[in-house]
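User:
I would dearly like some help making sense of a protein record. Take your time, and here it is.
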Amino acid sequence: MTPAESRAFRKPADARGSAGVLPGASTLADATQARKAGITINLLPWRERRREQRTRRFKQAMLLTLLLGLLLGWGVAQHEKALLRAQQARMAMIERHTAVLSRDIEAVRDFRRLRERMLAQIELITQLQASRPLTVRVVDQLAATLVDGVVYTALERRGARLEISGVASANRQVSSQMRALAQSPVFSTPLLANVKSGDGPNAPKQFHMSVDERALGATTLEATP
């Protein structure tokens, strides 16, 4: 066999070998070996597939991240809603208790006002009961010390003081009435405010005087020998 025939016979084998390398060149090392062997390899389909895989993986990762974010946001929103509902429930309970306490406070205030009114009434009744004997004694002494010719027209009591207005036939009777009140064990010395005379020498005299009542204890001590 001549050398030319040998080359012609090996050439299809080389072609088959190159054709056999092309489909199996899936890695960079194979491509490098093929390049060293003088064989040209087209890497564009492999890069496209690699790019598509990366794009697919990136999209899957983004979708997974989005789903996780949505799930996390939904969980946080549900947690916040639960906290809000719990806070609203606590506020409602506090408002109910506040309303009950307000009613109780108002009831206590009403009881205090009622207590104050009752204490004031009790004090007034006690004063009336304590002053009833003194009032009887005052009226009795006013009647006992009344001088002939003197008529009381008005009596006003202001605490322990009596304001007396009356009419007398003469000034002498007014003086006698003041002396009679001063000698009474119930009254102190009276004070004459004014005396008005009517028209004519025999016109009645209108007078106004005030006299203080003596304390019951002091009256008792003076009456005791």
Confidence is low (pLDDT under 50) at residues 1-26, 218-225. The first helix runs from residue 3 to 24. Helices lie at 3-24, 28-36, 44-144, 171-183, 216-223.
